[in-house]
Amino acid sequence: MANTSRPEDFDAYWQQVCRELEATPIAAEEEHLPIRSTEFCECYAVRFTGIGPYRLFGYLSIPHGDGPFPTLLLGPAYRSVVDPLPQGDANEKRGRFLVFSTAGRGQRNADKPYAGLFPGMMTEGIDSPETSIFRGFAADWLRAVDYLLTRPEVDRSRLAAIKQEGMPILTAALRPEVTHVVASPGDFYNTGDHVPGEVEDYLRLYPEKEAQVKRTLSYFDPLFFAPNARARTLLWGNPEMVAPLAEALVGETDVQQSERSSYKDGLFQERWIADQFSFEEIIIPAHWQ
Amino acid sequence: MNPVGQDSHLYFGKVTNDILDKENRMSQTERIPSDQYRTVVTRPADFDAFWDDLLAQSAEIPLNATVELVPLRCTPEIEVYDVHYDSLDGVRISGWYALPRERSGKLPTIIQMPGYLQDPPIPRAWAQDGYAAFSTAPRGKIRSNQQFNPGYPGLLTHNMVDRNTYTYRGFYIDAARTIDFLLSRDEIDGERIGVTGSSQGGGLTISTAALRPEIRVAAAGAPYLCGYMDSVELTHTYPYQEIRDYLRLYPDRREAVRDTLAYFDGINFGPRITCPIMVYIGLQDNVCPPETGYAVFNTIASENKQIYSYDGHGHDAGAVHHGAILKDFFKNHLQDC
Q1: Surface of A (139-198) touching B: CB under 8 A
Q2: Which of A139, B60, B182, B195 shows a CA-CA span of 20 to 30 A to B111?
Q3: What pLDDT, in 10s, does the model give residues A43-65?
């Protein structure tokens, strides 16, 4: 049972974020990266602008051949590092999919002027939804979609937002162009009952701020985005725990519980994506074959 | 789980797509069992001299340690400190130091080494179990990157043609210097220090156990930085893909790269390790090939060594099964001794 209240001004808050994005030119620059390019793809470092304004970063891999290509958006995650492709994924995937792996504000390559600390970034500005770093960080996911939609190589019928957290659901709700989602409930799900460890630390030191901190977190709860998330979704999590979220998602949703094996979970996810994008064969690492 | 020498999992690659180029067809060939793989790594004749010289240089550098309590990260049971110390080339290194508030006498210690992409965590869980615990952030990690910051990807290949400036020359010493900090602390029992970590943390466990005889026990999960040149052929995944990327662009530098990496390969550190050690790996590890886990294990000189191989597991190295074994292992060697 979820136990977080939807803020009364939830819609207005996010409408304002979207208005700020609309008013902010993307102003993208692409720089070819020969060292990350291969026989089957070209790779670019992309710099583009999010709200603030704030200069963001992404690795863009475009397969050789005639597009458009099915697209994987691997948006910002809560850690310092961004790779062109997630650690352990078969590099050959970049010959089939257009891959955009992006850094949100605070992450490496998007760490000027703000360099996030991990731990630390989670509670940056957390006393208010207006000052929380995650207002911008979430908007950085949306901006990555905006950038992709400027690219003719993107197959708009196959655009997946992927990360083991709740941001892809937020993104699908606010950017209906996202056709597929792979997500988990993430750190901001049901924070009425349980807050992330870093927030727990913060509230131990500032117990008087609990109500305002939990109010801030509620603006990012994927549960409140789910009624507008129409993408086909793979939701990772304990079925009982994620049931309220799965039921609230508008798009057809498969719930999958981790087998606590990166091999088994990874194989399942690759098969799911391949099925959704109508590929019979999956591209997986040698040690999974 | 498969005990030593009974790796029953055979890998048979198959064509899964039509975009693999000729170079990539390695993954389509039949694989031999991981424990029968023969590494291509060779040990330089001056390997020990190279590292002994660096250790001697390191020993001459004053620690200049600072230790600052961090109230935000403390709990009713655990004190957490932000530590900084000097290392090779004058690079300032950071770490998280966690202590149980309730303690009597000198403490056994566990050093937690970080993964390649991991931001070093605060090691409160170990402190909760009664250890002093230190989580090291070698150069290039955030909080240790003011003077050295080649980035990710990039750190793995930075100056990869020169053993005297390659990333891991300083990186390994930064990790080993953690022991110097610990030995400077009154609350630490210098006879009961262990080291552990997974992935790059596993690789640093290997190098630190090899470089510092003060390490009494070690546990390395899915060890990275072991069999670099094997891995670039066995896998097409990041982070080792960074080396493949580099060699694709600069094929003429392959020999220089191979020669440099030999000085930093965990397989070559193995003969220097004599403490009790366990290695645990996933047989479907798509990041650090299980072949290299066996290769490093086979070179370890310790009389008391064990390998745990988990079929059905990847780079998680069977952590879901292995967690309790790991805790018991350290308890037996550091707390019940």
Answers
A1: none
A2: B60
A3: 999 999 999 999 999 999 999 99
